[in-house]
Amino acid sequence: MPNYNPQKHHRRSIRLQGYDYSQEGLYFITICCQDRAHLFGKVVSGEMILNSYGEIAQKEWRNTSAIRDNVLLHEFVVMPNHFHSIIEIKFQKGNNEIGKFQSPSQTVGAIIRGYKIATIKKIKDYILNIGEKSSGRTSEKINSTGELQFAPIAPTEKIKELDFKIWQRNYYEHIIRSEQAYERISDYIRNNPKRWNDDKFY
Question: Please, are residues 42 and 49 in contact by the beta-carbon 8 Å criterion?
Answer without folding.
Answer: yes
